[in-house]
Amino acid sequence: MDFLQQAPPSVQDLLRAGEPFIPFSEYSVQDITHLSEDETTKWVEAKLRDGKPFVIRGFSRLKEWDRSVLNNERLGSLSSSAAIPVRNCHTGRDAKMRLQDLLSQTEYARTGNVREFLYAKDLQCPQEWIKALDAFLPSAMRHLGSLDLFRTLPKEIAPEVLMAYVGTRKSSSGFHRCFSGTVALNLLVESEGAGPGSICFGTDKHSQAVYDTYMERLGKSPHTDWTDVSTTQLKSANFPIYITHQQPGDLVIFPSATAHQIWNISPMVTKVVWNVMHSSSLVSFFDYIQPFYQRYCHADTGRVPLIPLHALIRGSLGTEDEALLLDVFLKLLDDEAIETDSVPPMKTVDTQGAVVECNFCGLTIWNRHLHCEQCGDFDLCLTCFISGRSCKHVADYTWAELIPRAYCMEVIQSTRNRLRGRLLSRIKNPKQKSLGALAAAAADARKQPMMERLCHLCRDSHPAWKGVACTQCSAFFCFRGLHRHFDVDLIPFLRNTDPWVCPKCSHFCNCRCCHFPLPYSSKDKPVRSRIKSIDPRGRIMGFTDNVFDQKRGKRASMATHSASLPPEVPSRVHKRARTQVSDEEAELPRQQEDYSTFPNRGMIQSQSTEDTIHTNARPYVMSSRSIGPKGQLRISDLVEEHSPAEAEPSFQAPFRHATPLLSLTPGDGASRRPTNEPSVPATTDEASISFLERKLEELRRYADELLDLSLVDSHAKVQEKISQLQGQIEERKRRKAEALFDSLDRDFPELATVAREEARRRGL
Ligand SMILES: [Zn+2]
Ligand SMILES: [Zn+2]
Ligand SMILES: [Zn+2]
Ligand SMILES: [Zn+2]
Ligand SMILES: [Zn+2]
């Protein structure tokens, strides 16, 4: 990471080096001050549609910029004096300190003792600052302003997105996309010293797909990771990287769903950062972001699926936006139509204003969904249900809706009346099945008594609802096998109404038994960490969720997607403890692989705080997920990173040592080493867990090999052994956790409560 090790690069030098670096489009605030609100809105809209990052300089030179309010001292005095989590971007860990103390770090600068890497993000922006911003920002750029569709959501459920950031030199926000496809706006308020405060890197909307491939190649998720990418690495990008420097009064704008990275280079910068849900963000969200979020269980914190209905009810949008929202809404409504002769009974649920989230993928459910009668509080979105996701009550689901269809039709009618002739022409694809129809079929299929079929691909039997039969030869192919061997994407596959002819009948089957001259060669699937349900009760009942590449034994050595692991700490496969082995796991051996992706490439990830903010800052009740209060020390960091690592059996827990966690002294990264004080958890359990896990891995390899040779009976025996071993590991982990919490209770009782709560939530 050259940024962290060396002096910051200069924007001029990078631009001189040429491709892929090109400058941001730059404007002066004088370019827009003479425009009317309407004209400014059009101007900003055009830029956002163009999809390239841009910067508007000089807001601090306006007479409306109130210097007496917009300064660090005032921010400090207006903010709470409680300790807040401050990320050390070098170690990737959070420490707690008071904002006032962080702001006075400039004292260190004066004495030549400069603190670096510290970043306090997502600080509540004081009301007085919000007022000060409103005094000079045109509505089009404002949070909840004329282009921000978040303004249409009821206040209690709109995401909290206007935040203050304070960072010291070399603090950074690695490359990422902001949540739910939003536009990101970043205004530099104060910077210590004369030079530029920050360097901003951006991408454009035309590079979305190449950016995704580029990040995948770095072993990172282009949607959910925050990854510092060095300028040396960036030179290999095959798409434009826009760069600019940012000084006080400069507002940088990154259009919908475009990735960006920011490095702070002056000793101390203070910013206000916010996100706008522009109509182009809405389109990006549904087309591009949501399928990914659903697949990888990344919650949509923007509540985007609720926006179309709320926006249409509210009216008062521009004609163009209204037509677009109507179109989006009609698509949502069409897609949940069931379209069968016997529509299943539908329960209308009054949530009293609470938001319903899918317990599996975290998607905000706007209307129809499936509800587990047994759990009583477990809901699935249609996509998850169709994809074979479930709680343990596979077939006890009933239909529920939040908004009666008749009401939706009224809203559509009144919007049409308002718009009259100005409707978008809609092309409906008649050959596509709706999600509603697919979910109805899935619900029926799940209720069939265990009908098993022998799969042509795995030579194993599966419940009939986990696959599809050929319309010509009636051979059965499981969905998981279709994905692995033939890159079949489940939902589009099922939407297709054409009669399905199997790979065998099409003469390209690549299984071990068919020997066609031109077998299909399946794409390499990136090795990913196991997809985990947001609610620990969620079970993956087959299908395409946990599909790994076919290179057996190729195991990513480094892991965790918690993203806060400092590179120097040897990581291990992040596993969620399970209290029981689900039926599915016993039955589908290949799903057991818990390989994790992201091999560590020595890059620092500085994600977590920002990502959690938006998750944690929700002020309303949720259906089922309990999340700690904003700004809470992430106990998961402690538990996952600092608990004795399996790799070092003699590692002793540092929990008794208060200083490294609670104070921030120079070099604290290094002081977070194991101490020689009595270690809390029993090291014997420790050693045996890692021993058993190694054995488990071996067994899984055997299981795979046996299955590859179709030795089904021996495979079943190995599976049995695997289940036993898993039980033993669970038990030891539970014991270890108990010992850990007891000690934590002694030393830091308040952390113990948090840790217990998290352990409970994670099913430990
Ligand atoms: Zn879902
Ligand atoms: Zn259930
Ligand atoms: Zn066939
Ligand atoms: Zn199969
Ligand atoms: Zn075959």
TrEMBL record:
Annotated Gene Ontology cellular components are:
nucleus
Tell me the leader sequence span.
none
Sorted keywords for this record are: Coiled coil, Metal-binding, Nucleus, Transcription, Transcription regulation, Zinc, Zinc-finger
User: Which InterPro entries does the record cross-reference, listed alphabetically?
Assistant: JmjC_dom, Znf-4CXXC_R1, Znf_ZZ, Znf_ZZ_sf
Which domain of life does the UniProt lineage start with? Eukaryota
Q: Where in the cell is it found?
A: Nucleus
Tell me which stretches of the chain form a coiled coil.
689-735
Q: Which GO terms describe its molecular function?
A: zinc ion binding
Q: Where is this region: Disordered?
A: 553-591, 662-684
JmjC domain span: 126-293
Q: What is its main location?
A: nucleus
What the entry lists under Gene3D superfamilies is as follows:
3.30.60.90, Cupin (2.60.120.650)
User: Mind telling me what this protein is named?
Assistant: JmjC domain-containing protein
Question: Which organism was this protein described from?
Answer: Aspergillus eucalypticola (strain CBS 122712 / IBT 29274)
